[in-house]
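== Sequence and structure of one protein ==
=== Format: two labelled lines per protein ===
==== Data for this protein ====
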Amino acid sequence: MPPQARAGAAVAVVAMLAACASAPPARVEPQPPPPPVVEAKPEPERETVQVAPVPISPVVIVQQAAPPAPAPVAPPVNEEEQQMLALIADLQRYASETADELRRDLAAANQAVNRARTDVNRVRLAVLLTLPGAGPPDDVRAMALLEAVVGKSPGSSPVRQLAAVLYSQIVERVRGLAEERKKSAAAQEKLDQLRAVERSLLLERNRNAGGAGGGGGGGGTGR
């Protein structure tokens, strides 16, 4: 090949190389991999299980009885009310006791007052002192015992109220007995006066009868 032809061929090769160097190669986008193929597995056949029916027992409805109503709760009783209840029970018992039992109760009540001079002990002894079966009534001492209870500071104590009632009853009875004594004394005084008049009349009649007999005897002697 002549030198001119080789030069032209070299120029052409250089031009081709320059064109290849200047133009960047085209970018090829990677394609996504295809989705994996999943083979569908056939479902295993289910075994048929026969279940025997369970017997159901009959339902029995039991009606429970209503719970009993709670017993009423009594209000608390203080010590003074308890003593008052015991005193009332004793007074009711005295009405049906014999004379011997009343005398024993009177002795016990005297000892109780000597140990403790409480209102309840005073009232119990005062009541026994007014009962004929326990011995000769002693209204004066009974009134003194009740005065010691009633004459205290005023209050609504049940024992003091009972003592006031008993005191008024004894006072009325003593007043009635005093009036009866006055009437009896007045009647006795009138009776004594009548008897005195009767004796005086008898003496006067005897004197008159004696004088008349003596006069008659003297006249007969003179004849």
Summary: The longest helix spans residues 158-222. The two ends are 261 Å apart (CA to CA).
